[in-house]
Automatic annotation (TrEMBL):
The lineage of its organism: Eukaryota, Viridiplantae, Streptophyta, Embryophyta, Tracheophyta. Belongs to the class-III pyridoxal-phosphate-dependent aminotransferase family. SUPFAM superfamilies: PLP-dependent transferases. Pfam families: Aminotran_3. It comes from Cinchona calisaya. This is Ornithine aminotransferase.
Length: 471
């Protein structure tokens, strides 16, 4: 009962007083209330997320409605899974038409959609082969297995000695292999032992990467990296870094593996973020927006010299390449191409950053940095100046003003709206941030339930460095 009362108190506190009701979608009198649904999830679902307290009931394009009919603008896009916009009609049409004919064959048999999808994907990105999976984490696992197999077969690394290098601050999913690379103590604590065969290097540090390659190069099968680090706070590497990585991987015969699950498919203003430096990785991992916000779809792209290291029976997925997902992915790719969403992202991203920089000029002591490429952006806050307020608290106030965003690492707010978002909607988001900092922030320290001492930055268990986001 105590936990229920605590939850109800938090819900009432966070629900806000300034939610706008456009009444664009009529409220369903038979539907459960938002508070009831939040309580129900708290009681019946694992507590592995800390959501912003808003219940999605209906969505279209960049707009979200809750069960009470309140309208919001989505500035997260389900972590870039909805690049095309919510419920895009072409994607939904493909889903419905295919669902009425065939949904699953498994890879024990052929189906008539996957070969078409495979050809579309490989030709669009310029690779010879694709290995289909479902979630982004599965795509990462696939790439890691592929790199190890290639390392033993082609590079002749001694058995059990293959090494994968990853970057500090990376996020590649929640599997044991992915969290073993993590610099986030919350991701690793309690899940030991972490996997062996992994080395770390600072993101953006080509000198450090060359040093590791020189010391361990004969046993390194692959370098797994995000061209733009998402979960770390939209961290963009120095100019020329991606080209340097390509040169080093070629020199030391190491597979360059780009995790483009978030940064790809137009999010950064290019089809792939690696395209900003005209770099071609050996392996590319795609996910999220590949399913158009409708189904989980992921893929690993590589040429035959790498991909055919995996033989029948050595890796697979019952649902990977299923006809329903294949049809949806084809439509999702068509929307990105036909609506020129990469170009649109580049243009709208410049516009959004210009707006955010104006807000920063108004509040230079609060906003530490505005950064991004395309519509992959972040606002980093000065946590010492904000204390005891956090980025999560700022996002709660943005929600009250009709803007949905999500923080990362206490001091960073990601702003990654659908690539279809209009200029007016972008302006609405920037204005809401300005208004929160001007009108809400001065009162927010008084609303915190208790004040705690400002602790020192946490040290990463994995690499021994101070955790990111602890300004």
């Amino acid at each position: 009962m105590a936990s229920k009362r605590t939850l109800q108190h938090l819900v009432k506190r966070f629900w806000g007083k300034h939610v706008r009701n456009f009444s664009a979608v009529p409220q369903d009198s038979t539907a459960s209330s938002s508070q009831h649904l939040i309580n129900l999830e708290y009681e019946c679902s694992a507590h592995n997320y800390h959501p912003i307290p808003i219940v999605f009931c209906q969505a279209k394009g960049s707009s979200i409605w809750d069960p009470e009919g309140n309208k919001y603008l989505d500035f997260l896009s389900a972590y870039s899974a909805v690049n095309q916009g919510h419920c895009h009609p072409k994607v939904l049409k493909a889903l419905v038409e295919q669902a009425e004919k065939l949904t699953l064959s498994s890879r024990a048999f052929y189906n008539d959609r996957f070969p078409v999808y495979a050809e579309r994907l490989t030709s669009m990105f310029g690779y010879e082969m694709v290995l289909p999976m479902n979630t982004g984490a599965e795509g990462v696992e696939t790439a890691l297995k592929l790199a190890r197999k290639w390392g033993y077969m082609k590079k002749k690394i001694p058995r059990d000695e293959a090494i994968i290098v990853s970057c500090c601050g990376c996020f590649h999913g929640r599997t044991l292999a992915a969290v073993s690379m993590s610099c986030d103590n919350e991701a690793t604590n309690g899940f030991w032992p972490l996997l062996p065969g992994l080395l770390k290097v600072d993101f953006g540090d080509e000198i450090g990467l060359e040093k590791i390659f020189k010391e361990h190069g004969e046993k390194i099968a692959g370098l797994l990296f995000e061209p733009i680090q998402g979960e770390a706070g939209v961290i963009i590497p120095p100019d020329g870094y991606l080209k340097a990585v390509r040169d080093l991987c070629s020199k030391f015969n190491v597979l360059m593996i780009a995790d483009e699950i978030q940064s790809g498919l137009g999010r950064s203003g290019r089809l792939l973020a690696c395209d900003w430096e005209e770099v071609r990785p050996d392996v590319v991992i795609l996910g999220k927006a590949l399913g158009g916000g409708v189904l989980p779809v992921s893929a690993v792209l590589a040429d035959k010299d790498v991909m055919l290291c995996i033989q029948p029976g050595e890796h697979g997925s019952t649902f990977g390449g299923n006809p329903l997902a294949s049809a949806v992915a084809i439509a999702s790719l068509d929307v990105i191409r036909d609506e020129r969403l990469s170009d649109r992202s580049a243009k709208m991203g410049e516009e959004l950053r210009h707006q955010l920089l104006n807000v920063q000029q108004r509040f230079p002591e609060i906003i530490k940095e505005v950064r991004g490429k395309g519509l992959f952006n972040a606002v980093e806050l000065n946590s010492k100046a904000l204390f005891p307020v956090t980025a999560f608290d700022i996002c709660l106030k943005l929600k009250e003003r009709g803007i949905l965003a999500k923080p990362t690492h206490d001091s960073i707010i990601r702003l990654t709206p659908p690539l279809s978002m209009s200029s007016a909607e972008l302006q609405e988001g920037s204005k809401a941030l300005h208004d929160v900092l001007e009108h809400d922030l001065p009162q927010m320290p008084k609303e915190k339930p208790q004040r705690v001492s400002h602790t020192a930055a946490k040290v990463c268990d994995r690499c021994g460095r101070n955790s990111f986001g602890s300004s």
